[in-house]
TrEMBL record:
GO molecular function terms noted in the UniProt entry: DNA binding
Name of protein: Tyrosine-type recombinase/integrase
Residue ranges occupied by any Core-binding (CB) domain in the UniProt entry: 84-163
Entry-linked NCBIfam families: recomb_XerA_Arch
Cross-referenced Pfam families: Phage_int_SAM_4, Phage_integrase
Length: 357
C-alpha cells in the first residue's frame, strides 16, 4: 500500500524509550528517505540508527503489516491448555474474511468464556454448562441484552464454525433485544456544537460526520484520494460489512476542505494524527464530547448521534428513504426505517386531535 511494497524497505515491531514503534530499515538513499517522510511522520533514532514511526493501526495498514488482534493482557489470562483453541478461533475468523473490528470483538468475547473455563478444555464444554454460563452472564455479571447477544455470537461461531457442532445452541434461548430509538440532535444543537469547536480541524471532523452521515470509523479512514471534488462525491471504502459506497459531498464543505488542506497539508488520510497516519476514533469521540460540554448540551449522545441526526433531518425534508438507505450503507431497509419513528416524534407541526375540537 502507498508504494511501500515496491520499495526496498523492511519493517520490524519493537519499543523505543518505552513506546511501541515500527522500525523502518533500508539502505541509505535520499529517494527512499524522501518517500518515507512524504507518507508518514517518521523520525530518526540516533541511538538505534534507524527510522521509526508509532505502532498504530494506520501505519500497519500503510506498511502492509498484520493488524494486532488482541493485546498481551488478554492472552495472559487464558490458561495455556486453551491457548491453541483461541489461536484456532482467531485464524478461522481471519480465513472467513471478517473485518478487523469483528475479529477483535469476537476474540474479546470468546476470551471471557475461556477465563471462566480456567484449566478445563473448552472442547469438553457441554450444552448444559454453556447454558449455565450465559445465565451467569445475565444474573451475576448483569450484562445487557446486546452484550449477551455479542458474547453468544462469538461463542456460537467457535462451536458451530470451528468445531462444527451445530446443535450446541438449540436449547439456549437468546434474550429479546430492546427496540431503542436512535439518539439524535436537532439542527439548533448541531449548530451550537460546531460553533463551540474552535479548532478548524476538529470542527471539520464534526461537519464531515454530520454532513455526510458517516460512522466515526469511516470519517477517520477517509483518504485524500477518496474525495472527488469535480463530481462532489466521496468514496467510502470498506465501510461496515466490508462494503464500498458513495456519499454526497456537501457544497458548503468544499471551500473549507480546500482551506484545511492548505493549512494542514495531510499526506494520505484527510484527518491525520500527531504521529502521522489516520486520526484515531477515540480522538474524534473526545472532540465531540468536548464540543457538547462547551455548547452546554446535556443530552446523553455520542458522536454517532451526528449520523443519526443526518438521517432524521433528511427524512424530515422529504428525502426518499431508499436514497437514505444507500447513503448510510444499510444492508436492509428495515434498519433505515427506525428513523421514521424518530421523525414522527420530532415533528412539532403534528397536532393532537384534541386541539381541533
Amino acid at each position: 500500500m502507498n508504494d511501500f511494497a515496491d520499495k526496498r524497505y523492511s519493517f520490524s515491531v519493537g519499543t523505543h524509550y518505552g513506546s511501541k514503534v515500527i522500525w523502518v530499515s533500508f539502505d541509505k538513499d535520499k529517494e527512499l528517505i524522501s518517500h518515507l517522510r512524504s507518507q508518514t511522520k517518521a523520525r530518526w533514532s540516533s541511538t538505534q540508527k534507524k527510522w521509526y514511526v508509532a505502532d498504530t493501526r494506520s501505519h500497519r495498514a500503510i506498511f502492509g503489516l498484520p493488524q494486532k488482534i488482541t493485546g498481551e493482557a488478554v492472552l495472559a489470562k487464558i490458561h495455556v491448555i486453551n491457548l491453541p483453541e483461541f489461536t484456532r478461533f482467531q485464524e478461522h475468523l481471519l480465513l472467513k474474511g471478517y473485518s478487523a473490528n469483528t475479529v477483535r470483538t469476537y476474540s474479546t468475547e470468546f476470551a471471557q468464556l475461556l477465563y471462566v473455563m480456567k484449566g478445563n478444555p473448552i472442547q469438553e464444554l457441554t450444552t448444559e454448562r454453556l447454558r449455565s454460563y450465559f445465565l451467569y452472564c445475565h444474573e451475576k455479571l448483569k450484562l445487557s441484552e446486546s452484550e449477551i447477544h455479542s458474547r453468544m455470537n462469538a461463542v456460537k461461531f467457535y462451536f458451530e464454525q470451528v468445531l462444527h457442532r451445530q446443535k450446541m445452541f438449540f436449547d439456549i434461548p437468546r434474550p429479546k433485544k430492546k427496540l431503542l430509538l436512535p439518539k439524535m440532535l436537532n439542527k439548533a444543537e448541531i449548530k451550537k456544537i460546531i460553533a463551540a469547536t474552535e479548532n478548524p480541524k476538529h470542527a471539520l471532523i464534526l461537519k464531515v460526520c454530520y454532513g455526510m452521515g458517516l460512522r466515526v470509523s469511516e470519517v477517520v479512514a477517509l483518504k485524500l484520494s477518496d474525495i472527488d471534488s469535480a463530481e462532489m462525491l466521496v468514496r467510502i471504502e470498506q465501510g461496515k460489512g466490508k462494503k464500498d459506497r458513495i456519499a454526497v459531498l456537501p457544497e458548503s464543505l468544499l471551500p473549507e476542505l480546500r482551506e484545511y488542506y492548505l493549512n494542514y497539508r495531510p499526506k494520505i488520510y484527510l484527518f491525520e494524527g500527531q504521529e502521522g497516519g489516520a486520526y484515531s476514533v477515540r480522538s474524534a469521540q473526545a472532540v465531540f464530547k468536548k464540543a457538547m460540554e462547551k455548547a452546554g448540551i446535556k443530552k446523553k449522545v455520542g458522536i454517532h448521534g451526528l449520523r443519526h441526526s443526518f438521517a432524521t433531518h433528511l427524512l424530515e425534508t422529504g428525502t426518499d428513504i431508499r436514497f437514505i438507505q444507500e447513503l448510510l450503507g444499510h444492508h436492509s431497509i428495515k434498519t433505515t426505517q427506525i428513523y421514521t419513528h424518530v421523525t414522527d416524534l420530532s415533528k412539532s407541526k403534528i397536532k393532537s386531535p384534541l386541539d381541533s375540537l
